[in-house]
Every structure is written in structure tokens, then in C-alpha cells.
Write a structure and sequence with these properties.
Blueprint: H1 3-35, H2 39-46, H3 53-56, H4 59-66, E1 81-83, E2 90-92, H5 93-96
Antiparallel strand pairs: 1-2
Length: 110
């Protein structure tokens, strides 16, 4: 293989690599944006992501950063209105811990 052909092949390989890298960065940025949106938007975006993308995108890192929040350990929880399980009446969280400690459980018992 002569020198000019090697340069041409190298140029093509570098161009293809640059285009693939730019596409990957764009996809990561799009998924990162979606992770900062409400659940409806995030679900809509993720439903359309092709399966191979799950192997090349850093989902765990993006998710951890997107859902980190602003609270630190030991800080007071923000004002929050919750519904009681027994009668579904809205209750301010701050009014609950005036009487006794409060434990919040997020998730399912099933």
C-alpha cells in the first residue's frame, strides 16, 4: 500500500471515528436532558431508545447525577404535603414531626 492510499484510509477512519464520537456525545446529552425532565417525558424518551444504546451509554452515572437532589445528610427535609393512607387527607409533613419522629417510606411493599 502506498503512502497516499494510507493517508486516505487514515483520513476516512478518523472522519468516521469523529462522526461516531459526536453522535455518541449527542445521544448522551439527549438522555441526560431527558433524565432531568418529569417522569412522563423521561419515559417517552426511554421507550424509543434502541436496545444497543443501553450497552454504550453510561446510564447509571447519568441517573445518579440527575436524581442526586440538593439535600445533604442531616439537613431538614423540605416542606412537603403528603396524603394519609387511612383517609387520604392532605397533611403537611412539618406538622407530623412536631408530635413525634416521622419515617418516610418510598416504594412498595409487594
Amino acid at each position: 500500500m502506498d503512502v497516499t492510499k494510507k493517508k486516505r484510509v487514515r483520513t476516512w477512519v478518523m472522519t468516521i471515528a469523529a462522526v461516531c464520537f459526536a453522535g455518541w456525545v449527542s445521544l448522551v446529552a439527549y438522555v441526560n436532558w431527558a433524565m432531568h425532565q418529569p417522569p412522563e417525558v423521561f419515559g417517552h424518551v426511554m421507550a424509543r431508545i434502541p436496545m444497543p444504546a443501553y450497552f454504550v451509554l453510561p446510564f447509571e452515572t447519568l441517573w445518579s447525577r440527575a436524581r442526586k437532589g440538593q439535600l445533604s445528610v442531616g439537613e431538614t427535609a423540605p416542606g412537603l404535603t403528603v396524603k394519609k393512607l387511612d383517609d387520604h387527607t392532605p397533611t403537611e409533613l412539618a406538622s407530623l414531626w412536631a408530635e413525634r419522629p416521622v419515617v418516610l417510606v418510598f416504594g412498595s411493599y409487594t
